[in-house]
Amino acid sequence: MQNISLEELAGKAKVSKTTASLVLNGKGDRYKINKDTQQRILRVAAEYNYRPNFSARSLTKGRTMTIGLVVPNIADSFYSNIAFQLEQQLANTEYQLLMGSTRENSEREEALINTFLNRQVDALIVATTQKKQAYIERIYNSGIPVVLFDRHYPNSLLPHVIVDNYRGINKLIYHLQSKSRTNIGYIGLELQLDAIKERQLAYNDWMKATSSPDFFRTVHYENYQAECEGVVSQLLQNGVDALLFETHYLALEGIKCMTSKGFHCPDDVNVVSFGDHQAFSVFTPGITVVHQPVARIAENCLKLVFEQLKEGGLQSSGEIILEPKLVIRNT
Amino acid sequence: MQNISLEELAGKAKVSKTTASLVLNGKGDRYKINKDTQQRILRVAAEYNYRPNFSARSLTKGRTMTIGLVVPNIADSFYSNIAFQLEQQLANTEYQLLMGSTRENSEREEALINTFLNRQVDALIVATTQKKQAYIERIYNSGIPVVLFDRHYPNSLLPHVIVDNYRGINKLIYHLQSKSRTNIGYIGLELQLDAIKERQLAYNDWMKATSSPDFFRTVHYENYQAECEGVVSQLLQNGVDALLFETHYLALEGIKCMTSKGFHCPDDVNVVSFGDHQAFSVFTPGITVVHQPVARIAENCLKLVFEQLKEGGLQSSGEIILEPKLVIRNT
DNA sequence: CTGAAAGCGCTTACAG
DNA sequence: CTGAAAGCGCTTACAG
């Protein structure tokens, strides 16, 4: 378990550092090092449990084999699932993930990215607060691979993989309509994010097109639990027959409020959510949702990262838009 | 955003690398470097956005300011919350977290730890599969700080922070008894973990002490969803009036099964869970649980890590047992 | 087939 | 007050 250095190892195997390094890196055959010599080096390495010093290697190679992941909140099931997927898909590579949560705070986002950059991460995957466009673009333009996911900057060439938010909400609305619901309440977030705006736009477009009553409401991210309760109660009084939640955690909060007030789902008020959650299939009734393809989001983020890491740079347009899937349960 | 080196920076500021390094590391005053000179260096650093190369610094200092976190599954809400807490508590330090999921596979655990060690992490925080005692002890004994949490090795000096699992289950049982339930079904995991054994022991001790019917059942981790369904149905047929789930995800699965069979909670069958979940307060009725103090677990893990990192080494016994809290809701 | 040497970008005794 | 130099542990042209 002790750290023996390449130099010591070479000494014990009676070869130079060069030879030892070559063999240890699997270049023994290419450099036609004697089989015996190779064996000897490998044996000594095993015997002393040789661990090449990663910092030294990173320093010489100029790569850290590390990717920085920046999300709003790693405790949020969507992001922790993304992290899990990234990690699993990276498991058979040399790459590791460094991660941090911004808590939707842009200062913290910049500090986090800065920290990762100081550590010379080879690439950045970020679900941005969308308040750091110039900063992130500067990084990207300086040659550091960047992939945005979940949130992106619409007027920017920054590579990103997102979901078609507008269509996602549409699917939910159509579904509700197929259940003959017309007074659909919408509970969203007061956040300057395009992902959010798109969702809200879809609802508002539908509202206008159908001259439906305006049951569009938003709450603040920092205080969503309390505000959600207020907004939901009010909507219920207004006589909505369906509630569409913009995110899974809003839905969770809203359902809590609804049932505490004695409203029954789906009879009184039907409930659907943008974004799935482990519990939604457990509820009675099971909550119908639009599901974000977590594995494919992760997969495509890595695809864009590796494209940028390669010689030629990005081959594709850098924009990947995935289709959110309607998962019909009981609501 | 370009990487300018210390040498270049020194050149532009017309000082030696030594002086520049000293000033940049806040040792300017200690070494009585001219105020003017200091200003000049700082100005140049800011102007060229100087980022000291982390690999180089790690190499010279022999520390990477990185802690490796190993958990069974980062997508599990318990572990992602731990990760979030660790990260937040580490936010005002220089430390960063590298993390990986073992998926309860001990080979993967060893590979993961090995990878982290290759990267010279300064410490390891691990929720072990509990099948790698010798390996982890060897690491610990070689001087690398290690803290186990959630799961530990009972006959080992490895520092750990755990929860009193036996008492946790007891609290749940007492609660159920206070609700006049006597036919309590137990759904647990077929895993060789002491945390699990303790929970199961608590139930079995109670069962024997009270001569209660044997409603103790276990399922395999890899296939818990399907098996849980079978076990729960059977228990329901056996006429249990309460179901005690060993983990939050078992509870989630069990509730799904129960309600699909038309059983009503808490009237027909009361349900409680070891381990909380975001949805448990949303369910109707709210699920009573024993809550694991996530923030305090994280806090104590870091306490033990930093103790080991300090000169004198571990000051305390290295064993921290936290009290799980009964959170009474509607069940 | 193998080795001596330079270089990656820092930090830190050691001098003066 | 400041600098020259060694050293951290690797990799990789360059020689022979």
TrEMBL record, chains A, B:
SUPFAM superfamilies hit by this protein: lambda repressor-like DNA-binding domains, Periplasmic binding protein-like I
Tell me which residues make up the HTH lacI-type domain. Answer: 4-61
Q: Which terms does the record give in the GO molecular function aspect?
A: DNA binding
Instruction: Specify the domain of life of the species encoding this protein.
Output: Bacteria
Q: Which UniProt keywords apply?
A: DNA-binding, Transcription, Transcription regulation
Stored CDD domains: HTH_LacI
Matching entries from PANTHER family are given as:
LACI-RELATED TRANSCRIPTIONAL REPRESSOR (PTHR30146), TRANSCRIPTION REGULATOR, MEMBER OF GALR FAMILY (PTHR30146:SF154)
Protein's name according to its UniProt entry: LacI family DNA-binding transcriptional regulator
Q: Give the species.
A: Carboxylicivirga mesophila
